[in-house]
Amino acid sequence: MVSGALGVAVVGSLVTSLYKSGLEGSLSGLPEPARDAAGESIGAAAAIAGQLPPEAGARLAAAAGDAFVHAMGIGLLAAAALSLLAAVLVARGMPVRQPASSRSPVR
């Protein structure tokens, strides 16, 4: 359970960091509170985009969507790689079991 929670935290941090860095260039014309909010979540970016003039709002919404999809893609690849690594480690560390037919009978 602890490893699952740590995995979610690590992958979530990675996705958040990638989203924020992917969106930075598109936030230059916004006031600082709006820039901070849009960099925190795609929902906030969509809400802010809805309050902007149509062309600027569409650009912000598209940039936020692209940054989110890119960040989630990399985050999911990282999660898949970590899951594969964990599966390999478990498979290598499990004891080898003898088939039932080769065990000596119990008397």
Structural summary, described in words:
The protein is an all-alpha fold and 107 residues long. The chain has one domain. 76% of the residues lie in helices and 0% in strands. It contains four helices and no strands. Helix 1 packs antiparallel against helix 4, helix 2 crosses helix 3 and helix 3 packs antiparallel against helix 4. The longest helix is centred in the last third of the chain and has 40 residues. It is rod-shaped.
Task: Give the overall average pLDDT.
Answer: 89
SSE succession: HHHH
Low-confidence segments = none
Judging from the principal axes of the Cα atoms, what is the shape?
rod-shaped
Structural class: mainly alpha
The radius of gyration is 23 Å
Gap between N and C termini: 41 Å
Which sheet architecture does the biggest sheet show?
A: none
Quaternary status: single chain
**Total strands:** 0
Fraction in beta strands: under 5%
